[in-house]
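step: validate -> pass
step: tokenize input -> pass
step: predict -> running
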Amino acid sequence: MKVVNRCVLAAAVVASAVWAAPARAADVDPLLPADSEQVFFVNVRQILDSDLVKKFALAQIKQALEGNDAQKMMKDLGLDPLKDVDKVSGGVWGDDPQNMKMVFVVRGKFDLEKLFEAAKKAAEKDGDKIAIVKDGEYSLVKVTVPNRPDPFYLSGADNKTIVIASDKALVTAAMKSAEKKDKPALKKKLGELIDKMDAKASMFVCGVSSGKVGDIPPNPLFDNPEKLKKQLEKLETTAMTLRVTGDITLDVTMGMKDTDAADDFGTTVDDLLNKAKAFLPFVAMQNQNFKPVVNDISKTLKSKVDKKTVVITAKLSGDAIGKAAGSDD
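step: predict -> pass
step: emit ->
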């Protein structure tokens, strides 16, 4: 039964990606590796149950799932994405942006036997894309993704947990951690940052940024890329929180080395936001439906400096989003 319980899911990765693109938001999933430098969380259930999604997106999502191919895939998997996926957590780390290490944990309700059978059939049909592999006592599903040099590996810890990772050893480690019921093992600074996240948020992303700044690519918004790079070298933490209710609100916080660094960077951020706002009317000119969205962003996109932190906030009303979506309501 270990093969069934650990081998699950070639296609669950597809389903989870659809709803992630991945419980209390501030809780750290215990299966995330201690090496994680960036952590994200998506409360899939809360987003799907939000007034905004119910009003403007749920019908389209259901329609997409009613296609013959989608229905067959869901039946084979024993999976209803609208009911069975609750939340997705992830940990990412590494110095090479093209080869980052990552672990994703999908929580919900899964029929692991059906998921495994679907993966096995897919492997027989498309062996170059999907394969069943072993790592010690564990069986995993190997998925080769287009335009990515390395495959993903996935498995199921139990009927409520699926693990996806960039390396099979990471999946195996998560399996062992689930069996031992280990407590979260993230580094102290990252753990403290997660503790500050909104427990009711629809999504958050946060991480330790010290020493992670690369070259700044040319951009008409950046008058002085070298100055911006020096400012970002004093960036220590970043966090983004998204709340989806009847509206959408966004908060971005950037922790700087000290108050002087925050004041200096805050001036640059304010300038960048003002330049971005100047481009927004051109978006509305292309499509009048986007005019309410542009107006919302122009009014609510703001930045401020609070001690050692630079904060960016914005809000989109449900009415503006509805008009952009072509709703007559």
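step: describe -> The chain has 14 helices and twelve strands.
step: cleanup -> pass
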